[in-house]
Amino acid sequence: xxxxxxxxxxxxxxxxxxxxxxxxxxxxxxxxxxxxxxxxxxxxxxxxxxxxxxxxxxxxxxxxxxxxxxxxxxxxxxxxxxxxxxxxxxxxxxxxxxxxxxxxxxxxxxxxxxxxxxxxxxxxxxxxxxxxxxxxxxxxxxxxxxxxxxxxxxxxxxxxxxxxxx
Length: 166
Hints:
The protein contains four helices and six strands; from the N terminus they run H-E-E-E-E-E-E-H-H-H. It is of the alpha+beta class.
């Protein structure tokens, strides 16, 4: 618990992320917090995303278990499903006890800016893109459309999503 509070104080004191990150505990529960990320550069520039971070045990950042990270905002990203999960190695298989909150926030920013199209979560694109757009889903299986969906298509669809949503 002390390491989490120390991280928050350090982030706030040094303005590590400027004014682009807001950290709040959920209902005075120290094992749950929200992170509001204002994205100022990269693919998601101009968007604001709210994430909930839930620690699995009282050791929080010192735990051998990665926290559960959920995006609470509509998002157009192949590795993030709103209200479900965030698929990120650092917040999953590569989690290490002692990872800082700054590391968690940095991982989220990096994931937003570096989508892993080859590892897209099933159904991530459903309902977010106008079906009539050139890069929208074409006929064929979900696997085929994901495999044929390139970064250029993603950027075009993302720009439309951000303009429509934010």
